[in-house]
Structure formats: structure tokens, C-alpha cells
Design brief:
Shape: flat
Structural class: alpha+beta
Number of strands: 15
Helix content: 40-55%
Number of domains: 3
Distance between the termini: 33 Å
Number of helices: 11
Largest sheet: 11 strands, antiparallel
Strand content: 25-35%
Radius of gyration: 25 Å
Mean pLDDT: 89
Strand order of the largest sheet: 3-4-5-6-7-1-9-14-13-12-11
Order of helices and strands: EEHEEEEEHHEEEEEEHHEHHEHHHH
């Protein structure tokens, strides 16, 4: 099997920050609460743009399941916060931003934002989750679930149309997933911007370690600086000692099976690892074009339905694309409201600008 590494880096990072107000500055939570209550009273399902210090966010009309009354989101962060919560801020760094800028730059950006609104760190931040991703181009899949030798007590696999898509090992504080990332993008996440980073839109499999606090602490990883310094030690232990991929043989002892070439390459990467982070310039125009193409494909499907309905109504066997578009145009003019159009378009522009993917 031929394989080549396309990308590796952090795909998810969750971190708690313990910040205090600098004198009388800080977030005006009363004003923020009034804005959130107005959204709730209007029964709005949409977020509202707010400017806080050096960053602009979308303010959600609801709190979070973990007990924070406010949720602020933009293209880089998802921030849970509240006036009495401890820790005061819980931050999820977005996948798109991590691959674009890297964890260190995003961490500095968050601290700069906090300083811009009058907050200072009271103690070291605490990482609660880090997902390490290795994306490989695989020409074919020549292994199955029995090819993995792992210390994980629980494993499962997911298939679609009798074709394997995901191998999963472990749960809770440590989980390994080896899965068809292209299929996951098309069926679930919609992160098509990865195609641009990879230079392909097929045959990419991801090896992803989801590591939570218990395992992070085993390697002395508590804050961001610890992560940058010690992530190599953690990943070497995971890829060498916890789980390996093997080539099946007649030996009854599976741990003596030879290593699979894919895993040999993975181990060589982690053995040399001193830091993770991919810094590539993304083509925003290309990403917008990808979004527009997806919308066009969706509309084209609806136009076929319109043509079918119109054909039945008019007892015609063939309805052209132009006829279907004319029917749609007429219907749209009947429901078009100029005032709400401008308001909704502005809202969607804010949503795309502040949370583009």
C-alpha cells in the first residue's frame, strides 16, 4: 500500500482561562445580558454581532450546557463566559483557525483580546482536550480492525454500503480514530477547505488522537507552553506503546506481527516531533467559490423538483431549465419582502464573516 503524509497538526483545542478584571474594566455582563434577553424575547434563532475590545463576535441567544450564561463565537474562537463562573472563560479554538494560524498564535490572540477588554491572567490556563491529526493519502486500504494491536478496552467500526469508513479505539480520556476524512467531510462536517490544503478531495484517511485532561496530565501537559514542549513525548507513547497497526502473520502473538508501513511512517514522524502546527495560506476566494458551488448544486436539485411538479400540473412531458427558473422566479417575487431581505442579508453577511466555516 502506498501512503504519504499530507498534513499533521492540532484539529481541536479546548482550554480554560482563569482571568480577573484589571481595576474597573472588563465585560459589561449586564449590557450583554440585556442583548441576549432581547434576542430570546424576539424568539430569534440567530446570533447577534457584538464588538468587545479588539474582537467582534456573534452573541448566542442562549447559554451553554456546561453552565455558562454567555456564548461568543467568531472564526477563531468559541468562548463560554460569565460573571461568576470559575474558570471565567472556557475557549474552544476552531479547527479552521488552528490549521490557518496554529495554536500558539491563537493563544496569543485570545490573551491580547482579554487584555483589550481589561482582563489579566490570574493563573496558568488549563487544557482540557487536544486532538492531534495526521492526514495520509492512501491509495488503498489493506488492513482491518484485527490489524490493530491496542491497549484500549473498547473498539468499534463504522461501515457504509459495506465499505469501512471508521475504526475507533478507546473512550473517555483517550480515543483513537482512523477514518475516511473525505467521507466525513461530505457526509457530516462540510469542511471542504481541507481539499485545498491537501491538494485532493479523495483517498485521505485521518489518524486522530483525542486526548483529554487525565492523559495530558500524565505527561505534565497542563498549559499551552507544556503542550508545545511535551506533545512529542505524548504522541510517541501513543503511537509506539498504546496502539500500533500491524501486518497479519501466522504468529499467534499479535504483538509480534510486523509493523504496517503506514505506522512505521507515523512513528518516524512522532519520533522526530518537536512541535505541531501547519501554517499555510488559505485561498479565501476559492473557499467562497466552493460554498457557492454547493448552494448551486442544491438549488439545481430543487429546480428539478419544480420542473417535475410543473410538468404534472401542465400535463407536459418536458419542462426546460429556463421554464423551471421562470416558475421559481415568479414564486420568489410573491414572497419577497424588501425590508426583511436587507436585514437578513446583513445578518448572514455578519455570520459568514465572523464564523465562515
Amino acid at each position: 500500500m502506498k501512503s504519504s503524509l499530507l498534513l499533521f497538526g492540532l484539529d481541536t483545542l479546548e482550554c480554560a482561562y482563569y482571568l480577573g478584571r484589571n481595576l474597573r474594566e472588563g465585560i459589561d455582563f449586564d449590557a450583554l445580558g440585556a442583548k441576549k434577553e432581547a434576542l430570546r424575547a424576539a424568539k430569534s434563532r440567530h446570533s447577534s454581532p457584538v464588538k468587545l475590545g479588539s474582537e467582534e463576535f456573534l452573541l448566542a441567544s442562549h447559554g451553554t450546557g456546561s453552565g455558562y450564561p454567555f456564548l461568543l463565537e467568531n472564526e477563531a474562537f468559541s468562548i463560554q463566559c460569565g460573571p461568576t463562573n470559575i474558570p471565567s472563560f472556557f475557549v474552544t479554538y476552531r479547527s479552521y483557525a488552528l490549521w490557518q494560524y496554529g495554536a500558539k498564535q491563537l493563544h496569543e490572540r485570545f490573551l491580547n483580546w482579554a487584555e483589550s477588554i481589561g482582563y489579566i491572567p490570574l493563573r496558568q490556563e488549563s487544557i482540557s482536550r487536544a486532538d492531534f491529526a495526521f492526514d495520509y493519502l492512501l491509495s488503498e486500504l489493506d488492513f482491518d480492525e484485527d490489524s490493530f494491536v491496542t491497549k484500549a478496552a473498547k473498539d468499534n467500526q463504522h461501515r457504509k454500503h459495506r465499505k469501512i469508513q471508521t475504526f475507533s479505539f478507546g473512550e473517555g480520556h483517550l480515543r483513537l480514530r482512523v477514518y475516511d476524512k473525505c467521507a466525513e467531510i461530505q457526509e457530516k462536517s462540510g469542511k471542504s477547505w481541507f481539499f485545498d490544503l491537501w491538494g485532493t478531495d479523495k483517498d485521505v484517511w485521518r489518524i486522530e488522537w483525542q486526548v483529554r485532561k487525565d492523559w495530558l496530565h500524565r505527561f505534565g501537559i497542563r498549559g499551552l507552553e507544556d503542550l508545545f514542549e511535551r506533545q512529542g513525548d505524548l504522541l510517541r507513547a501513543l503511537t509506539n506503546d498504546h496502539t500500533t497497526l500491524r501486518l497479519k502473520s501466522q504468529d499467534s502473538n499479535r504483538s509480534r506481527w510486523p509493523l504496517h508501513p503506514l505506522w512505521i511512517d507515523l512513528q518516524s514522524r512522532t519520533n522526530k516531533l518537536t512541535g505541531l502546527g501547519i501554517y499555510r495560506e488559505l485561498d479565501y476566494e476559492k473557499l467562497s467559490e466552493e460554498r457557492m458551488l454547493r448552494i448551486a448544486i442544491s438549488i439545481y436539485g430543487y429546480l428539478k423538483r419544480i420542473a417535475a411538479i410543473e410538468g404534472l400540473n401542465q400535463a407536459q412531458e418536458k419542462i426546460t431549465l429556463s421554464q423551471a427558473m421562470s416558475v421559481l422566479h415568479h414564486r420568489l417575487l410573491n414572497i419577497h419582502e424588501p425590508m426583511s431581505w436587507h436585514v437578513d442579508v446583513e445578518r448572514k453577511m455578519n455570520e459568514m464573516r465572523l464564523s465562515p466555516w
